[in-house]
Amino acid sequence: MLVAHPTPDGRSGIRGRRVAVTGLGVVAPCGVGRDAFWAGLLGPEPDGPRRVENLDATPIYGPKEIRRVDRFTQMAAIAAAEAIADAGGLDGSSGLSVDPDRAGVMIGTGIGGLETIEEQFRVLQEKGPRRVSPFLVPMMMGNRATADVSMRYGFRGPCEATVTACAAGTHSVANGARLVSSGRCDVVLAGSAEAAITVIGVAGFSNMTALSTTGVSMPFDVKRDGFVMGEGGAVLVLEDLERALARGVHVYAEVAGAASTADAHHITAPSPQGAGAVSCMEQALIDAELAPEAIVHINAHGTSTPANDLAESQAIVKVFGTPGPAVTSIKGITGHSLGAAGSLEAVALALTIQKGQIPPTAGLTELDPEIHLDVVTGEPRAWTPGPALSNSFGFGGHNGTLVMTPVS
Amino acid sequence: MDNTEAFDKFKQCAVEVLQVTPEQVTPEASFAEDLDADSLDLVELVMALEEEFKITVDESELEGVETVGQAFQLVSSKL
Hints:
The structure holds two protein chains of two kinds. Chain A has helices spanning 34-41, 58-65, 71-86, 114-127, 136-140, 144-153, 168-181, 199-207, 241-246, 275-288, 306-320, 331-334, 341-355, and strands at residues 2-4, 14-15, 19-28, 31-32, 103-108, 159-160, 187-194, 232-240, 253-262, 297-299, 326-328, 357-358, 374-375, 381-382, 388-394, 398-405. By secondary structure, chain A is of the alpha/beta class. The relative contact order of chain A is 0.18. Chains A and B meet through helix 2 of A and helix 2 of B.
């Protein structure tokens, strides 16, 4: 990852510190916790909206506070706790033991506390403004999850929430990695969370015809007709690689590069031929100082909408040619968890590298003949882990790409 | 409604909103010290009390209210 990019006037790029992924935490409909999540990704495709069943963050918040924490924040809190424990804990000889002023939190969201807004709007209509909860604002604000996590662990470095719709997770991980790479932080908790399967949320997405009418998520399939709503949260512990190696913690992967671009085209439709996605992947390769030929796998955005999957596939073909890298979309299993998607998929990619297995694209039975990609289907595919990408694209024309590589 | 009945209802609201035990809700109990309640907790408690007793409490009336006894007095003065 570069801390200064090459400029048109001939200045060369400057490489930053290497960034290790040393902890994973995930709350997903197919499984809560790293191992359950991975098993879910390799399992059968579920039906209907992908809800996280039996979510319970009471052990973290206690019975009083829990009622004042929106579902999206609860998911982030559970994921953060798991990620920190996975990275060896906060303290002790094998723990993170990070200077709080050099520890950051970058947990984004697409929407924030939608369930809270919906509930409190009902209170407003039924009982009037005097009955609206004094906790409405701190529950609904999109920066609540990131703020809570920084408070819980005493991390006093940069603490921000990136809000770029369905690219928020990828951008948050990228922004966190940049803080480590630049030397500003030694440790960053980066991720995202989303809980928008509410009456008004479903109505909004449904009326814009983004949702599948059949309720089946089938990325890249010829019969795909929209995405299936999902929700979840994921957090990655990002850490200076040298520091991670020195304390002997397990390193899942390196975040070797990242990029963010805008389509500057249309509020919901991707730019023609995925031009924004093309420039995003190209920028990510520049950041990682890798040639396109080096990339062997892509964890695609692959939402199962007709427009996204076609544009993304055109973009991948443009950058990598055919057949190109092995492509998968986990959204056949997870559905589209909007702002959470990028961090869920970053966790999935880190595990794909660790396990040497690419999870298949569930729901895909007949590849769209206009999509010229090597899509992994049916069974997980064994691979020799190499440099890989994770893509996210959000309404607003936001594009995000991460580059992860195995650490030998 | 007699005083005991009213206090029982008051206690129920406090238990629900502040997630404390009924035994903790004594007239002497301090909201801040004993019941771990900050100013926003009190706003929520007052909302519950307004609903329960069908009364209205202005924000200005809450000034100086620090204990359960003081708050109950304020409520019962409106019944």
